[in-house]
User: Fold this.
Amino acid sequence: MNFGEYVKLYIPKITDAIKNIYNKKLNEVENSFLKDYYSELKDYFLAGGKRIRPLLCIATYNAFIEGGDDKIVFPSVGVEFLHNASLIHDDIIDKDDFRRGKPAFHYRFRQYHAKYDLKKMQAGDFGTNIGIIGGDSAFFFGLEAFLFNEFEQELNLNAIQYYEQAFKEISNGVLIEVDMVNQKDLKIQDYIEMISLKTGALLEKSILIGANYAMVDEKYKSLLSTYGVNLGIIFQIIDDLLGTFGDEKITGKPTDGDIREGKKSCLLITALNKLSEEDKKQLIQLIENPNISENDVNEVKILFQKADAANICRDLAKFYYNEAKKSLEQLKEVINDSEFEFFDNLLNFVIERKF
Amino acid sequence: MNFGEYVKLYIPKITDAIKNIYNKKLNEVENSFLKDYYSELKDYFLAGGKRIRPLLCIATYNAFIEGGDDKIVFPSVGVEFLHNASLIHDDIIDKDDFRRGKPAFHYRFRQYHAKYDLKKMQAGDFGTNIGIIGGDSAFFFGLEAFLFNEFEQELNLNAIQYYEQAFKEISNGVLIEVDMVNQKDLKIQDYIEMISLKTGALLEKSILIGANYAMVDEKYKSLLSTYGVNLGIIFQIIDDLLGTFGDEKITGKPTDGDIREGKKSCLLITALNKLSEEDKKQLIQLIENPNISENDVNEVKILFQKADAANICRDLAKFYYNEAKKSLEQLKEVINDSEFEFFDNLLNFVIERKF
Assistant:
């Protein structure tokens, strides 16, 4: 099956599994505010997202099980809960009021605040507070995917261990990124480590959870890990490229955002390492200015070009692509053709994407 | 063993188990900011707290196992992680910068911010952001207590199910409390439901997790539940009483805090239900005033006295005490004497406490 066929077949099943978890919560509560709260969470989860993580989990399981088996669908949504829970908290941290073109979870409750006659709490605080709890809820609900399914207890405990490890790695990645603003001499390897944790770890764990349920032999796990982590690395490098040199009409994102927020992107770190001392000094000055002008943003782009940063980053993505491809080729003999096609399509999509 | 002896014997063991979980994290990371982050979390966990929840888990286990067994200590700390994780997020939500006389977790990182040259992030935001992630980390690390211990997998999965349920009930309690500010005609039963969830649920689950590991017969679980939930209810009612009519020199807390923040305390809800329409109207006006004066606070206290609120609340606590006591007496035949004494002491302590 190619990637598109996989999406078409499994997204409705994944959506149903997510709905089931929330409908259970909704049935349990009577209080009207709790009903609104769980409805908003459910709605937020159903509002969008490509479901790449559950798809990876399902495809890995099916890759090793002849004919596949839909009982993997329910546990596969655990990683989607972890992902969305992180997004809910990230949006508070980054003060992003919109996600996928729709209101962020905390922003929904900033608006909800109007229903209250709250003299002692501002709308902004109210949204943030419910948002913090909302992310927490989603982290916990993800556990249900591993608690209530048809697999053996040992496999479920392994999956929960991966779930915990995935969170730890994601948070380590986020914290290293926070700390990066304080680092003057970043190497590209620091960046790769950071995105491996922040984005690669959960893609890898989605795959390993699928492999766990399919009881895949240990010897294939490191190949699967390489594929998963590298998929995340490639995704982030391309994200950085599109964030500055993408086509706004296609990406839907302005190409000055990363530069304005001074993001330690692949482009910036590459440029800082390649430019002359003088150019580097100028670049730092431009980036650190809190009132960066449109002209300054263009100056930064010119310095990126001078360092040939876009090409260097693209080559870097290509390097991780080749590594992932090599791992996938080694798995070819032992996995089903249908899922080989899925993994191969996804890898190509991630490096070629324009949005 | 009386409560004091229990504390003396088990607190050092509980502390060691918490340290072990954090030392493992600290050994895994090299990045200096991550080392600081995990050190602060560890330090926050070790800075205080009465460890009531792990003690309840341990005592319940020992109550049913002849001679007890220290292998319960490690899984018992899971509930302490859940408790502290909630406190970290609560302190952000309530904007409390101190906890147990020491800096709240987010406040530690507000101070840490001075180490950075962060032009694009304020100290307050930095503290909040690291605080959100800190609470998340603690929620996840609690899982390790159930993943890496000497008990059977089935018992560990049950414990994780209790862990998830405890969070869901706590958060439902917190959300119902948030919604209460919008409710005009609160009944005391609404308040009891709220504190049963917010405080009772985790005490109950601490006990049920201990019972789970001791493989206690189902028929005793509802007695154990009653004891645990009621312990939480009594604790909160007394907390509300001390928050307004306590001795500041003993409690260490000002007796105007609850009134100033307009907390829907047991006293306030009782008074609103008992007072005449006229007095009720005055009380609402006083409470809703964002610039409440010292004189207004005293007016509120006079209205509480007029409604005989303190005595009514004390009687309410006594009612739940008697229920818990009855359950405990029914358990007396099947549990060890040593732990009966612990449970009995704790129940008396919670209702008689002055701080």
